[in-house]
Amino acid sequence: MNSTFNELVSAVAAGLMVRSDSRRVRSGEVFVAVPGVGVDGAAFISDALERGAAWVVGLPGTRLPEGANARLVEHENPRVALGELAAAYFKTAEHGQKLVGVTGTNGKTTITYLMEHVLTAAGRKVGVIGTVNYRWPGFVLDASMTTPDCWQLHEIMANMAAAGVDTVVMEVSSHALDQDRVAGLAFDVAVLTNVTQDHLDYHKTMDAYFNAKARLFCDLPRRNKAGIVNVDDAYGRILLERCPQCTGYGLYYPATGGNGGLWGDIVSSSSRGLHLAMKYGDQRWELRSSLIGKHNASNLLAAQGAALALGVKPKELKSLEDFHGVPGRLERIPNAGGLDVFVDYAHTPDALENVLSCVGELDFRRLFVVFGCGGNRDRTKRPLMGEAVARYADVAILTSDNPRNEEPLAIMADVRPGLARCAHVIEDSDRRTAIAAALAEMRKGDVLVIAGKGHETYQEIRGERHPFSDAEVVREILG
């Protein structure tokens, strides 16, 4: 770190404001020219200077306009610089909070909810940053993205610290890791759930996607953090080879790593829930949960592994028996018709496979599935999602998800080849009408899974978010 940047850090620690949006710059403040995914912050240096920026942080080779009355600080990675400045401004390292990061394609939200539950029962004051919302005791803010931008992230943690929060559990997306949105944070525990196909529109390859997630374990500060890694997942086993100090957890593959790993056995699984038996070193314990399915057995293991890393005792994990679910994650929707209807966030081939195989093993007569695929995202996963539905559904209802700026019918056409082996397919691009069609076809003993949007309360069409909730639509139709 050069002396000029050290000087800037000291000034920011004393209260100098930092901006990464030139439109918000005020006289005397700092502007960080962050290289964006679509737009380079360096293009807005002149605007920031016109608004009175006294400091500019940019990549090596950055030049200020002739006559500019500001100090230039060159930094090899302005994104990381923003994190370091945010940590200085908000005194992040002084809060003394324990920080847990959960990454992976599926299961992040469920695991953060489980951890919030078990840690609260153990006497911790917990804050959660994730897909559904950012929350701590007495405060809830709807989430705009899974992992907030860097400055907002440090600000949220400072607000949590002011409210007495001693442990923060956060979902860490691959985008956030790739874009250094968690710069300036020192994680105490990192969790990997799994790595399956998603976000290839951004990362391009599975290896790049995995390597982004691996940064949480390998590259970020505090390399001696505890790592909790799913060894039932092939990429999890690769990560454990890279980071042998991590603890593996698994239901099927021999768990390895710290203390011999955390091993779980499914004693029973039914529509009433799970009965699990755990082994960790020479410790043994059992747990019953109302959550259903093998994927939730894995989620329960991950949450327990992270809790153990924070010093929670196995006997305290019993509090998980009082946990009854997560909004939009196989959430049962009670209704006047007495039908078995679940809403789930599954929007990848693997997530659909997990949810539908779980429901398919239960004692329902027919399985109905309403689903679609998001627009402006990885097109290659669309037929794979259709194949996952075709493997389990008696009736598949193909519709829109969040079409964004794509034509819904074109998205559905990409999915259709994957549904070739499904005996009964209904198509309707209007999601509300599609849900109504499924409900009209159902009889007692059938089950409906409405997949893709889960907790979301909007549908994004042509750049606008329109109010829409799968759960509310079910309630409106059935009463």
From TrEMBL:
The keyword Cell cycle applies. SUPFAM superfamilies: MurD-like peptide ligases, catalytic domain, MurD-like peptide ligases, peptide-binding domain, MurE/MurF N-terminal domain. It catalyses: UDP-N-acetyl-alpha-D-muramoyl-L-alanyl-D-glutamate + meso-2,6-diaminopimelate + ATP = UDP-N-acetyl-alpha-D-muramoyl-L-alanyl-gamma-D-glutamyl-meso-2,6-diaminopimelate + ADP + phosphate + H(+). Its cofactor is Mg(2+). Meso-2,6-diaminopimelate binds at residues 377, 401-404, 452, 456. A motif (Meso-diaminopimelate recognition motif) lies at residues 401-404. Its main location: cytoplasm. UDP-N-acetyl-alpha-D-muramoyl-L-alanyl-D-glutamate binds at residues 22, 146-147, 173, 179, 181. It is found in: Cytoplasm. The keyword Membrane does not apply. Its EC number is 6.3.2.13. Carboxylation is probably crucial for Mg(2+) binding and, consequently, for the gamma-phosphate positioning of ATP. Keywords: ATP-binding, Cell cycle, Cell division, Cell shape, Cell wall biogenesis/degradation, Cytoplasm, Ligase, Magnesium, Nucleotide-binding, Peptidoglycan synthesis. ATP binds at residues 104-110. Residues 102-306 form the Mur ligase central domain. GO terms for molecular function: ATP binding; magnesium ion binding; tetrahydrofolylpolyglutamate synthase activity; UDP-N-acetylmuramoylalanyl-D-glutamate-2,6-diaminopimelate ligase activity. GO terms for cellular component: cytoplasm. The modification N6-carboxylysine is found at residue 213. GO terms for biological process: cell division; cell wall organization; peptidoglycan biosynthetic process; regulation of cell shape. NCBIfam families: murE, PRK00139.1-2, PRK00139.1-4. Catalyzes the addition of meso-diaminopimelic acid to the nucleotide precursor UDP-N-acetylmuramoyl-L-alanyl-D-glutamate (UMAG) in the biosynthesis of bacterial cell-wall peptidoglycan. HAMAP family: MurE (MF_00208). Belongs to the MurCDEF family. MurE subfamily. This is UDP-N-acetylmuramoyl-L-alanyl-D-glutamate--2,6-diaminopimelate ligase. It comes from Desulfobaculum xiamenense. The lineage of its organism: Bacteria, Pseudomonadati, Thermodesulfobacteriota, Desulfovibrionia, Desulfovibrionales.
